[in-house]
Amino acid sequence: MNQPKVCFYTLGCKLNFSETSTIARSFNEKGYRRVEFDDFPDVYVINTCSVTENADKKCRNLVNRALRVSPQAFISIIGCYAQLKPQEIAQIPGVDLVLGASEKFNLPEYISNFQKRTETEIHACSIGDVHEFVPSFSKDDRTRTFFKIQDGCDYSCSFCTIPLARGASRSASVAETAVQAREIIQQNNPSEIVLTGVNTGDFGRKNGESFYQLIRELDRLDGVRRFRISSIEPNLLSVEIISFCATSNKFVPHFHIPLQSGSDRILRLMRRRYQREVYTQRVNAIRETMPDACIGVDVIVGFPGETDADFLETYQYLVDLPISYLHVFTYSERDNTLAASMSDAVDGKVRAQRSEMLRILSEKKKQAFYRSQLGTDRKVLWEAEKNGDSMFGFTDNYIKVRTPWNSTLINTISEVKLLEIDSEGIVQCAELIHTA
Fold first, then answer.
1. Of the candidates 327, 357, 372, which is a domain's last residue?
2. What is the H or E stretch that residue 421 is in?
3. 159 — phi, psi (to 5°)?
4. Phi/psi class of residue 189: alpha, beta or left (left: φ > 0; alpha: ψ in -120 to 50)?
5. Domain span at residue 384?
6. Domain total of the chain
7. pTM above 0.70, yes or no
8. What are 97's strand-pairing partners?
9. Rounded Cα–Cα distance for residues 59 and 148 (Å)
10. Final residue of a structural domain among 321, 346, 372
11. What is the CATH number of the domain that holds 429?
Protein backbone atom coordinates (compact mmCIF):
# COMPACT_ATOMS: atom_id res chain seq x y z
CA MET A 1 0.00 0.00 0.00
CA ASN A 2 1.28 3.47 -0.89
CA GLN A 3 2.13 5.76 1.98
CA PRO A 4 -0.96 7.97 2.58
CA LYS A 5 -0.49 11.68 2.04
CA VAL A 6 -1.83 14.40 4.36
CA CYS A 7 -1.90 18.17 3.92
CA PHE A 8 -2.33 20.69 6.73
CA TYR A 9 -3.57 24.24 6.24
CA THR A 10 -3.65 26.59 9.22
CA LEU A 11 -5.69 29.74 9.62
CA GLY A 12 -5.24 32.25 12.42
CA CYS A 13 -2.75 32.70 15.20
CA LYS A 14 0.62 31.32 16.29
CA LEU A 15 -1.27 29.10 18.73
CA ASN A 16 -2.99 27.34 15.84
CA PHE A 17 0.36 26.82 14.08
CA SER A 18 1.81 25.17 17.18
CA GLU A 19 -1.19 22.85 17.47
CA THR A 20 -1.17 21.97 13.78
CA SER A 21 2.47 20.95 14.05
CA THR A 22 1.73 18.73 17.06
CA ILE A 23 -1.20 17.07 15.29
CA ALA A 24 0.94 16.60 12.17
CA ARG A 25 3.50 14.66 14.20
CA SER A 26 0.74 12.27 15.31
CA PHE A 27 -0.04 11.61 11.64
CA ASN A 28 3.64 10.99 10.95
CA GLU A 29 3.69 8.39 13.71
CA LYS A 30 0.79 6.65 11.93
CA GLY A 31 2.77 6.42 8.70
CA TYR A 32 1.43 9.42 6.80
CA ARG A 33 3.60 11.62 4.61
CA ARG A 34 3.03 15.36 4.86
CA VAL A 35 2.63 17.08 1.48
CA GLU A 36 1.73 20.46 0.02
CA PHE A 37 -1.82 21.55 -0.79
CA ASP A 38 -1.61 20.83 -4.53
CA ASP A 39 0.20 17.47 -4.22
CA PHE A 40 -3.04 15.43 -4.39
CA PRO A 41 -3.35 14.57 -0.68
CA ASP A 42 -5.46 11.69 0.56
CA VAL A 43 -6.40 13.76 3.62
CA TYR A 44 -6.77 17.49 4.15
CA VAL A 45 -6.71 18.95 7.66
CA ILE A 46 -7.88 22.56 7.87
CA ASN A 47 -7.24 24.17 11.25
CA THR A 48 -9.62 27.10 11.51
CA CYS A 49 -9.85 30.44 13.24
CA SER A 50 -13.04 32.32 14.01
CA VAL A 51 -11.83 35.72 15.19
CA THR A 52 -13.37 37.43 12.16
CA GLU A 53 -16.08 36.60 9.66
CA ASN A 54 -13.46 36.44 6.91
CA ALA A 55 -11.83 33.45 8.62
CA ASP A 56 -15.12 31.53 8.35
CA LYS A 57 -15.43 32.38 4.67
CA LYS A 58 -11.82 31.40 4.05
CA CYS A 59 -12.53 27.95 5.46
CA ARG A 60 -15.27 27.45 2.88
CA ASN A 61 -12.98 28.63 0.10
CA LEU A 62 -10.26 26.22 1.19
CA VAL A 63 -12.67 23.26 1.11
CA ASN A 64 -13.68 24.17 -2.43
CA ARG A 65 -10.04 24.54 -3.45
CA ALA A 66 -9.15 21.16 -1.92
CA LEU A 67 -11.95 19.46 -3.83
CA ARG A 68 -10.72 20.95 -7.09
CA VAL A 69 -7.23 19.58 -6.45
CA SER A 70 -8.24 16.19 -5.11
CA PRO A 71 -12.00 15.51 -5.46
CA GLN A 72 -11.89 12.25 -3.49
CA ALA A 73 -9.73 13.55 -0.64
CA PHE A 74 -10.94 13.14 2.93
CA ILE A 75 -11.51 16.64 4.38
CA SER A 76 -11.40 17.25 8.11
CA ILE A 77 -12.01 20.59 9.86
CA ILE A 78 -10.66 21.40 13.31
CA GLY A 79 -10.02 24.56 15.35
CA CYS A 80 -12.10 27.37 16.81
CA TYR A 81 -14.65 27.57 14.00
CA ALA A 82 -15.16 23.79 14.28
CA GLN A 83 -15.91 24.07 18.00
CA LEU A 84 -18.21 27.07 17.63
CA LYS A 85 -20.22 26.08 14.56
CA PRO A 86 -19.83 22.37 13.74
CA GLN A 87 -23.30 22.11 12.21
CA GLU A 88 -22.61 25.07 9.95
CA ILE A 89 -19.38 23.46 8.73
CA ALA A 90 -21.20 20.18 8.17
CA GLN A 91 -23.32 21.97 5.55
CA ILE A 92 -20.25 22.74 3.42
CA PRO A 93 -20.24 20.22 0.55
CA GLY A 94 -17.24 17.91 0.71
CA VAL A 95 -16.49 18.12 4.44
CA ASP A 96 -16.18 14.62 5.93
CA LEU A 97 -15.21 15.21 9.57
CA VAL A 98 -15.51 18.04 12.11
CA LEU A 99 -13.68 17.79 15.44
CA GLY A 100 -14.01 20.08 18.46
CA ALA A 101 -11.52 21.54 20.90
CA SER A 102 -10.47 18.37 22.73
CA GLU A 103 -11.11 15.81 19.99
CA LYS A 104 -8.77 17.45 17.45
CA PHE A 105 -5.63 16.09 19.15
CA ASN A 106 -6.84 12.54 18.43
CA LEU A 107 -7.64 13.27 14.78
CA PRO A 108 -5.84 10.22 13.27
CA GLU A 109 -8.00 7.91 15.41
CA TYR A 110 -11.16 9.26 13.75
CA ILE A 111 -9.97 8.38 10.24
CA SER A 112 -10.48 4.68 9.58
CA ASN A 113 -10.28 5.08 5.81
CA PHE A 114 -10.19 7.83 3.22
CA GLN A 115 -13.62 7.19 1.73
CA LYS A 116 -15.79 10.27 1.32
CA ARG A 117 -18.63 10.30 3.85
CA THR A 118 -22.25 10.46 2.73
CA GLU A 119 -22.88 12.54 5.86
CA THR A 120 -20.40 14.68 7.75
CA GLU A 121 -19.25 13.20 11.06
CA ILE A 122 -19.19 15.63 14.00
CA HIS A 123 -17.39 15.01 17.27
CA ALA A 124 -17.41 18.05 19.55
CA CYS A 125 -18.10 17.96 23.27
CA SER A 126 -19.43 20.93 25.22
CA ILE A 127 -16.70 23.50 25.77
CA GLY A 128 -17.49 23.35 29.49
CA ASP A 129 -16.21 19.77 29.48
CA VAL A 130 -12.80 20.73 28.04
CA HIS A 131 -10.32 20.77 30.92
CA GLU A 132 -7.17 19.03 29.69
CA PHE A 133 -4.18 21.13 28.72
CA VAL A 134 -2.34 19.75 25.69
CA PRO A 135 1.09 21.34 25.19
CA SER A 136 2.01 21.97 21.56
CA PHE A 137 4.90 23.33 19.56
CA SER A 138 5.74 23.95 15.94
CA LYS A 139 8.53 21.98 14.36
CA ASP A 140 9.55 22.75 10.80
CA ASP A 141 12.36 24.40 8.87
CA ARG A 142 11.86 27.78 10.49
CA THR A 143 14.41 29.28 12.80
CA ARG A 144 11.91 29.77 15.61
CA THR A 145 9.48 27.50 17.42
CA PHE A 146 6.01 28.52 18.58
CA PHE A 147 5.48 26.94 22.01
CA LYS A 148 1.97 26.82 23.48
CA ILE A 149 2.24 27.27 27.23
CA GLN A 150 -1.39 28.16 28.01
CA ASP A 151 -4.84 27.64 26.54
CA GLY A 152 -8.34 29.00 27.08
CA CYS A 153 -9.48 32.20 28.77
CA ASP A 154 -11.50 33.11 31.86
CA TYR A 155 -12.08 36.67 30.69
CA SER A 156 -15.46 37.69 29.25
CA CYS A 157 -14.66 40.46 26.78
CA SER A 158 -17.93 41.40 25.13
CA PHE A 159 -16.62 41.01 21.56
CA CYS A 160 -14.75 37.71 21.87
CA THR A 161 -15.72 34.11 21.13
CA ILE A 162 -12.42 32.55 22.19
CA PRO A 163 -13.64 31.36 25.63
CA LEU A 164 -16.53 29.65 23.79
CA ALA A 165 -14.11 28.05 21.33
CA ARG A 166 -11.26 27.09 23.66
CA GLY A 167 -12.75 26.90 27.13
CA ALA A 168 -11.40 27.95 30.51
CA SER A 169 -7.84 29.06 31.15
CA ARG A 170 -5.46 26.19 31.83
CA SER A 171 -1.79 25.32 31.67
CA ALA A 172 0.77 22.82 32.91
CA SER A 173 3.01 23.54 35.89
CA VAL A 174 6.25 25.50 35.68
CA ALA A 175 8.25 22.28 36.08
CA GLU A 176 6.27 20.42 33.39
CA THR A 177 6.54 23.34 30.99
CA ALA A 178 10.30 23.54 31.52
CA VAL A 179 10.61 19.83 30.74
CA GLN A 180 8.64 20.37 27.52
CA ALA A 181 10.91 23.29 26.62
CA ARG A 182 13.99 21.12 27.07
CA GLU A 183 12.49 18.50 24.76
CA ILE A 184 11.79 21.18 22.14
CA ILE A 185 15.39 22.37 22.35
CA GLN A 186 16.73 18.82 21.96
CA GLN A 187 14.40 17.87 19.08
CA ASN A 188 14.15 21.14 17.17
CA ASN A 189 17.34 23.05 17.99
CA PRO A 190 15.58 26.42 17.62
CA SER A 191 17.46 29.67 17.97
CA GLU A 192 14.29 31.31 19.24
CA ILE A 193 11.24 30.04 21.13
CA VAL A 194 8.07 32.14 21.00
CA LEU A 195 5.77 31.64 24.00
CA THR A 196 2.14 31.54 22.87
CA GLY A 197 -1.26 31.14 24.46
CA VAL A 198 -4.78 32.51 24.44
CA ASN A 199 -4.07 34.54 27.58
CA THR A 200 -0.36 33.92 28.04
CA GLY A 201 0.06 36.02 31.16
CA ASP A 202 -2.56 33.91 32.98
CA PHE A 203 -0.17 30.95 32.93
CA GLY A 204 -0.06 29.00 36.20
CA ARG A 205 -2.71 30.95 38.10
CA LYS A 206 -4.86 27.89 38.82
CA ASN A 207 -1.77 25.97 39.94
CA GLY A 208 -0.76 28.67 42.40
CA GLU A 209 2.10 29.66 40.08
CA SER A 210 2.72 32.58 37.74
CA PHE A 211 4.01 33.58 34.33
CA TYR A 212 6.81 35.44 36.09
CA GLN A 213 7.97 32.20 37.73
CA LEU A 214 7.87 30.46 34.36
CA ILE A 215 10.04 32.97 32.50
CA ARG A 216 12.59 32.91 35.30
CA GLU A 217 12.79 29.12 34.96
CA LEU A 218 12.99 29.20 31.16
CA ASP A 219 15.72 31.81 31.28
CA ARG A 220 17.99 29.22 32.94
CA LEU A 221 17.73 26.71 30.08
CA ASP A 222 20.75 26.00 27.90
CA GLY A 223 20.62 25.41 24.17
CA VAL A 224 18.36 28.27 23.06
CA ARG A 225 19.45 31.82 22.36
CA ARG A 226 16.17 33.72 22.58
CA PHE A 227 12.72 33.67 24.12
CA ARG A 228 10.00 35.98 22.80
CA ILE A 229 6.62 36.65 24.44
CA SER A 230 4.01 36.61 21.68
CA SER A 231 1.29 38.67 23.42
CA ILE A 232 0.36 39.57 26.97
CA GLU A 233 -2.54 41.49 28.51
CA PRO A 234 -1.56 44.86 30.05
CA ASN A 235 -3.09 44.00 33.42
CA LEU A 236 -0.98 40.82 33.54
CA LEU A 237 2.25 42.43 32.35
CA SER A 238 3.62 43.20 35.80
CA VAL A 239 6.48 45.53 36.60
CA GLU A 240 8.49 42.51 37.80
CA ILE A 241 8.07 40.83 34.39
CA ILE A 242 9.21 44.00 32.64
CA SER A 243 12.18 44.41 35.01
CA PHE A 244 13.20 40.78 34.54
CA CYS A 245 13.10 40.99 30.74
CA ALA A 246 15.21 44.16 30.91
CA THR A 247 18.05 42.24 32.59
CA SER A 248 17.61 38.86 30.88
CA ASN A 249 20.09 37.70 28.25
CA LYS A 250 17.43 35.52 26.58
CA PHE A 251 14.08 37.30 26.78
CA VAL A 252 14.13 39.83 23.99
CA PRO A 253 13.02 43.49 24.23
CA HIS A 254 9.77 43.02 22.33
CA PHE A 255 6.27 43.21 23.80
CA HIS A 256 2.94 42.85 22.04
CA ILE A 257 0.24 44.26 24.31
CA PRO A 258 -3.47 44.33 23.37
CA LEU A 259 -5.06 47.75 23.92
CA GLN A 260 -8.27 47.46 21.82
CA SER A 261 -9.34 51.06 22.52
CA GLY A 262 -7.86 54.29 23.83
CA SER A 263 -11.26 55.35 25.18
CA ASP A 264 -12.04 54.32 28.75
CA ARG A 265 -15.75 54.36 27.90
CA ILE A 266 -15.28 51.86 25.08
CA LEU A 267 -12.96 49.73 27.22
CA ARG A 268 -15.78 49.41 29.75
CA LEU A 269 -18.24 48.42 27.01
CA MET A 270 -15.70 45.86 25.81
CA ARG A 271 -15.48 44.53 29.39
CA ARG A 272 -11.71 44.83 29.36
CA ARG A 273 -9.97 44.42 32.74
CA TYR A 274 -8.06 47.70 32.74
CA GLN A 275 -8.36 51.36 31.89
CA ARG A 276 -6.10 53.42 29.69
CA GLU A 277 -3.95 54.61 32.61
CA VAL A 278 -2.75 51.05 33.26
CA TYR A 279 -1.72 50.67 29.64
CA THR A 280 0.20 53.95 29.73
CA GLN A 281 2.02 52.84 32.87
CA ARG A 282 3.13 49.57 31.27
CA VAL A 283 4.41 51.26 28.12
CA ASN A 284 6.29 53.86 30.15
CA ALA A 285 7.83 51.17 32.35
CA ILE A 286 9.12 49.35 29.26
CA ARG A 287 10.54 52.53 27.77
CA GLU A 288 12.28 53.44 31.05
CA THR A 289 14.03 50.07 31.37
CA MET A 290 14.39 49.15 27.66
CA PRO A 291 14.53 52.33 25.55
CA ASP A 292 15.10 50.34 22.34
CA ALA A 293 12.27 47.85 22.93
CA CYS A 294 9.71 47.18 20.23
CA ILE A 295 6.13 47.61 21.47
CA GLY A 296 3.22 46.34 19.37
CA VAL A 297 -0.43 47.14 20.00
CA ASP A 298 -3.74 45.44 19.09
CA VAL A 299 -6.62 47.85 18.38
CA ILE A 300 -10.25 47.20 17.44
CA VAL A 301 -12.11 49.92 15.54
CA GLY A 302 -15.84 50.27 14.93
CA PHE A 303 -16.98 48.65 18.18
CA PRO A 304 -20.72 49.27 18.81
CA GLY A 305 -21.24 52.76 20.19
CA GLU A 306 -17.78 54.01 19.17
CA THR A 307 -18.42 57.64 18.24
CA ASP A 308 -16.16 59.88 16.20
CA ALA A 309 -15.01 61.41 19.50
CA ASP A 310 -14.16 57.96 20.94
CA PHE A 311 -12.18 57.03 17.85
CA LEU A 312 -10.31 60.33 17.76
CA GLU A 313 -9.48 59.87 21.43
CA THR A 314 -7.97 56.48 20.57
CA TYR A 315 -6.16 57.91 17.56
CA GLN A 316 -4.58 60.79 19.48
CA TYR A 317 -3.66 58.51 22.36
CA LEU A 318 -1.77 56.23 19.96
CA VAL A 319 -0.12 59.19 18.23
CA ASP A 320 1.31 60.31 21.57
CA LEU A 321 2.19 56.84 22.89
CA PRO A 322 5.82 55.69 22.32
CA ILE A 323 4.90 52.46 20.52
CA SER A 324 6.36 50.74 17.44
CA TYR A 325 3.48 49.32 15.38
CA LEU A 326 -0.23 48.47 15.44
CA HIS A 327 -2.27 45.40 14.57
CA VAL A 328 -5.61 46.89 13.52
CA PHE A 329 -8.82 44.83 13.60
CA THR A 330 -12.11 46.01 12.16
CA TYR A 331 -14.89 44.98 14.53
CA SER A 332 -17.18 42.26 13.20
CA GLU A 333 -20.23 40.88 14.96
CA ARG A 334 -19.81 37.40 16.38
CA ASP A 335 -22.69 35.14 17.39
CA ASN A 336 -23.27 34.53 21.10
CA THR A 337 -21.29 37.59 22.21
CA LEU A 338 -22.67 40.47 24.24
CA ALA A 339 -21.42 43.03 21.73
CA ALA A 340 -23.44 41.48 18.92
CA SER A 341 -26.66 42.50 20.68
CA MET A 342 -25.53 46.05 21.47
CA SER A 343 -27.21 49.01 19.81
CA ASP A 344 -25.48 51.86 17.95
CA ALA A 345 -23.67 49.70 15.40
CA VAL A 346 -21.02 51.62 13.49
CA ASP A 347 -21.55 51.87 9.73
CA GLY A 348 -19.34 49.55 7.71
CA LYS A 349 -17.80 52.35 5.67
CA VAL A 350 -16.93 54.25 8.85
CA ARG A 351 -15.29 51.12 10.28
CA ALA A 352 -13.20 50.77 7.13
CA GLN A 353 -12.16 54.45 7.18
CA ARG A 354 -11.08 54.24 10.81
CA SER A 355 -9.12 51.05 10.14
CA GLU A 356 -7.30 52.71 7.26
CA MET A 357 -6.39 55.72 9.41
CA LEU A 358 -4.84 53.47 12.03
CA ARG A 359 -3.01 51.35 9.47
CA ILE A 360 -1.42 54.49 8.07
CA LEU A 361 -0.50 55.54 11.61
CA SER A 362 0.99 52.09 12.21
CA GLU A 363 3.27 52.42 9.20
CA LYS A 364 4.41 55.84 10.40
CA LYS A 365 5.10 54.48 13.88
CA LYS A 366 7.01 51.53 12.47
CA GLN A 367 9.16 53.69 10.22
CA ALA A 368 9.87 56.11 13.08
CA PHE A 369 10.92 53.19 15.28
CA TYR A 370 13.15 51.80 12.53
CA ARG A 371 14.75 55.21 11.98
CA SER A 372 15.45 55.53 15.71
CA GLN A 373 17.52 52.34 15.50
CA LEU A 374 19.68 53.27 12.49
CA GLY A 375 23.36 53.38 13.36
CA THR A 376 22.94 50.94 16.25
CA ASP A 377 24.33 47.41 16.54
CA ARG A 378 21.71 44.66 16.95
CA LYS A 379 21.70 40.87 16.87
CA VAL A 380 19.81 39.38 13.92
CA LEU A 381 18.48 35.83 13.62
CA TRP A 382 18.60 34.92 9.92
CA GLU A 383 15.76 32.97 8.32
CA ALA A 384 15.61 30.55 5.39
CA GLU A 385 13.34 32.73 3.25
CA LYS A 386 14.99 33.75 -0.01
CA ASN A 387 13.80 36.64 -2.19
CA GLY A 388 15.91 37.07 -5.29
CA ASP A 389 19.45 37.63 -4.06
CA SER A 390 18.34 38.61 -0.54
CA MET A 391 17.59 36.93 2.75
CA PHE A 392 15.91 38.32 5.84
CA GLY A 393 16.09 38.19 9.59
CA PHE A 394 14.75 39.90 12.68
CA THR A 395 16.66 41.72 15.37
CA ASP A 396 16.00 40.99 19.01
CA ASN A 397 13.77 44.09 19.04
CA TYR A 398 11.84 42.89 15.98
CA ILE A 399 13.25 44.96 13.14
CA LYS A 400 13.19 43.22 9.77
CA VAL A 401 16.64 43.25 8.18
CA ARG A 402 17.84 42.37 4.68
CA THR A 403 21.26 41.08 3.62
CA PRO A 404 22.65 39.33 0.48
CA TRP A 405 21.73 35.63 0.33
CA ASN A 406 24.14 33.36 2.17
CA SER A 407 22.84 29.89 3.07
CA THR A 408 25.42 29.49 5.84
CA LEU A 409 23.71 32.27 7.79
CA ILE A 410 20.39 30.41 8.13
CA ASN A 411 19.46 29.82 11.79
CA THR A 412 22.49 31.76 13.01
CA ILE A 413 22.67 35.06 14.87
CA SER A 414 24.91 37.87 13.66
CA GLU A 415 25.62 41.19 15.28
CA VAL A 416 25.04 43.84 12.63
CA LYS A 417 24.98 47.59 12.22
CA LEU A 418 21.66 48.93 10.97
CA LEU A 419 22.43 51.27 8.08
CA GLU A 420 19.37 52.48 6.19
CA ILE A 421 15.74 51.78 5.33
CA ASP A 422 15.15 50.68 1.74
CA SER A 423 12.18 51.43 -0.52
CA GLU A 424 10.29 48.41 0.84
CA GLY A 425 10.63 49.62 4.42
CA ILE A 426 13.21 46.97 5.32
CA VAL A 427 16.49 47.83 7.04
CA GLN A 428 19.77 47.24 5.23
CA CYS A 429 22.71 46.26 7.39
CA ALA A 430 26.45 45.82 7.49
CA GLU A 431 27.47 42.54 9.09
CA LEU A 432 29.92 42.99 11.95
CA ILE A 433 30.40 39.75 13.85
CA HIS A 434 29.19 36.26 13.05
CA THR A 435 28.31 35.05 16.54
CA ALA A 436 26.68 31.62 16.18
1. 372
2. strand 413-421
3. -100, -5
4. left
5. 377-434
6. 3
7. yes
8. 76, 121
9. 23
10. 372
11. 2.40.50
